[in-house]
Amino acid sequence: MLVTMAVVCFLAPGCGGGASTGADASATTAPGVSTTPMVPSTAATTASGVADDEIGRPRPRSLHERVMAEHRLRQAATAHQPTTTTSALPLKQAAAPNDSAAVPTDSTVVVLTEGQTPLRGVWSGTAERLAAHLSTICPSSSFTVPVLDLAGYYVRYSAEAGLRADLLWAQMIHETGYGMYGGSVAPEQNNYAGIGATGGGEPGISFPTAEAGVMAHVAHMVAYVYEESPTAWANVTADPRFDFVNPRGAANVLADLNGRWAVPGSTYGQSIERIALAINTY
Question: How far apart are CA 121 and CA 138, in angstroms?
Answer without folding.
Answer: 27
